[in-house]
Amino acid sequence: MGNTNGQQSLLVLDQNYAYQTLKTHPVFGEIKLYKHSETGRKIAIINKQIFESEQHNMKQETYLKRKSYDNINLLKVLGFQKLVANDLCSQIRYLSIQVEYYENTITQFKEKFTEKELYYLIFSLCDAMDYCKQNNNEITDLHPSKILVTDDGFIKLVDNIVALEAISNFHQVKYNDRQVEYLAPEQLELFSGLKNKINQEKANIFCLGLLLSQLITKQPVSDYYLEEFVNLNLLFKRLDQKFAQYSYSNSLYTLLKEMLAHDPEERLSTKQVLAKKQYHHFVSNLDGDSVDFAEHHPPDSILQSPNSYYQEEQQMSYHRKKESVLSLKAANEEFLITDQSLQKRIDQALAESNKLLDQLSVSSPITKFQSRATINGIYDSVQNPLVQLTESRIKRLIDNSEEAIEKSLQQSKTYM
User: Fold this and answer.
1) Structure pTM?
2) Which fold is adopted by the domain 2-100?
3) 150-179 per-position pLDDT tens digit
């Protein structure tokens, strides 16, 4: 195999890097692994075959741009090089790509995640996905095998340019080489021919919700698929148990509900998820370093311009399903109220709803835990000083909560 005369961008390995092994990686395919003798840093060299000269040139431009990416949550491309191998009467062209290498994927890194760590995962991955989309490199295959973790707990997402497309989860499921997993409902409809186009960003958010469910429940997401159907009732039944066991907040439950909405139109977008960072405390890596996002986005800056803030929050909320009353940010349709009557109304709604909830059958598709989380969310929302509800908004939330409870009662009778 010989190099072309083109300019080389591959970093030269110094004498401290020792060749380790040749291995087949589930995301990169065949790689050569090197390790630094002093720091222990590992790098991988991936060879990608390119069949047409035009494609080869296009790939070179692609990797030049990819090498310039500046996002801490993406796997770093260190360099690349054009290679040509002579094979009898033909030449085979390659791009040899050098990337950072980490052994652990997110599902291998640790057994249990704190709520702050789960928020870190959500926001870090959404940040990486949003960055890729802005650079015309939208993620099309969000899977745990592509979410690597450094030794000190930082997330590194593997994007489409670096990963080998032929062994992606989507392709393996499509050609029956893997159980159905990490696909949004609309992606399943692509397989059946019911759809020929989807919103990839919304599909990614659904898959991110699946990832969180797997990390919380420790159950494979393949359990929820039956041909072209995703059993979200079973998924949330398992989440209910773990949320109670680990005392995760209603806010996190709400976010998962919005990410795992069956209809992509009712699902959050990446930017809508990222807009929620200002309301949550999370860590800067999975080693547990605390970060208070409010330090970067002071509450005063939000309160000084409430109209723009509330307009953005209205766009983030979805209300197509009456039973979904989990989007609890204020609408700027009336004057904001701040007096004690707000707290009294919330307390009263909470007490009355809990009485109704005690009558529910656990066999109902809308479980007692989920229904209680709905009304508790109203209470939790006013604990955040950035969130103040209008009088009409409070009434609507209470009415919708009772409507959800009534529907749950009717459903439970159907199963009796």
Assistant:
1) 0.67
2) Phosphorylase Kinase; domain 1 (3.30.200)
3) 988 999 999 998 988 766 776 677 666 667
